[in-house]
Amino acid sequence: MIRTRLLATAALGTTLVVGAAGVTTMSVARAQGTDTAPAAEAAASAAGPRHLQHRPLRRAVVRETGRVAADTIGVEPSELRQAWRDGQSIAEVATANGVEPQAVVDAVVADLSARLDQAVAEGRVDAERAETAKERVPERVSRLVEAHKGDLRAEHGG
């Protein structure tokens, strides 16, 4: 469940980062007077199904989000992963370790917000898009922290 929720949260970050890279590439090509439409269409069709295109980046974001949650709780990321696999939510692991679940949510949201700010500063993400993402992050992270293994899959029909 943690993994699935982390994937949902990661999907947002992934979309922002990968989208920003595409926007940057397209902007450079337009500035050079190059027609970008054929290249964009070819890249999209060659990459395969859209949900599979960003898996490595999603995994990286999930790992980092799990690390932030584990650090906040005071456990090793591997312990948090195993607890989740055993059916506990991140909130239950936090409570069992004397940490308020909201503290975990706040830490993960702060980390993701900082990453979005960094992506904007580096020109990888449009500021408006980052703000839209930041508005969604707290609710998604809260759902992630409270979810149990399989909860998010059930929500998304998987």
Description:
The protein is an all-alpha fold. It has one domain (2-21, 54-155). It is built from 9 helices and no strands.
Instruction: Return the domain count.
Output: 1
Which percent bin holds the helix content?
over 70%
* Radius of gyration over all CA atoms, rounded: 17 Å
Low-confidence segments, given as residue ranges, are: 1-7, 20-30, 34-48
Structural class from helices and strands? mainly alpha
Query: What would the principal axes of the Cα set say about the shape?
Result: elongated
H/E topology pattern: HHHHHHHHH
SS field, number of helical segments: 9
**Beta content:** under 5%
Using DSSP, what is the number of strands? 0
Instruction: State the separation between the terminal residues, measured CA to CA.
Output: 12 Å
The mean pLDDT is 75
| Biggest sheet details | none
Key phrases:
0% strand; 158 residues; disordered N terminus; mainly alpha; single chain
